[in-house]
Design goal:
Blueprint: E1 4-8, H1 12-24, E2 28-33, H2 40-46, E3 50-54, H3 65-73, E4 78-83, H4 88-96, E5 101-104, H5 109-120, H6 128-139, H7 148-155, H8 158-168, H9 173-180, H10 184-198, H11 203-213, H12 215-218
Parallel strand pairs: 1-2, 1-3, 3-4, 4-5
InterPro entries: CheY-like_superfamily, Sig_transdc_resp-reg_C-effctor, Sig_transdc_resp-reg_receiver, Tscrpt_reg_LuxR_C
GO molecular function, one term: DNA binding
Pfam families: GerE
Amino acid sequence: MGVRLMVVDDHRLLAEALASALKLRGHRVLAAAAPAAGAAELVITRAPEVCLFGTAAPAEPGIFDPVVRIKRERPQVAVLVLGPVPSPRGIAAAFASGASGYVRHDERIEGVERAIMKARAGEAAVAPALLQGAFSELLNPAAQPDDEGQRLLQMLTPREVEVLVRVADGEDTRLIAAGMGIAPSTARTHVQRVLMKLGVGSRLEAAALAARTGLLDRASPLPRPGEDLDAKPE
């Protein structure tokens, strides 16, 4: 038997694509809406059995305020959060707001459907390991918010940090190689390793991520000619 659903996400294309896939599987989709932040009124009015609530930043303060309102005014609606690979803090925030589960954006449609059925049945629709981490965070919250910039900085060697700073300054491979006194092929390898560690697909994405997280503010200044900041072996 199909489930009465609503799909809300900041990305309308994603919301509509998921809604279409669920309709094909026999579910009744009442609406696909964007942005997620303004969808609470629609969910409260339509009163679906399950609301799929998409977010790209589950750990951001206030992101689940619409979920809190939905659960306050329509407690019978099960809210299933769709988001990126989460931190325990993001999972904890979702459950603290009243959500019934958390599903990664890259989950297959079969996995999303299983989570929907669990949420409608009143079960926790989340992987056990993620749930354990969320409860640990709720019971023993960190004294300070997650520092993504510091976490990313710790993933890179000092030389890779220098490469990232140069990328963010708009230097191409030739300039990076000249500035660091290395071969262009070596510079290219460093750039690829930085992209891989940061989980991005381009130099532009790497620069944007570094700026957004404050990583560049934490990075050491570029070395003067003849100076080597690569204090630890690669």
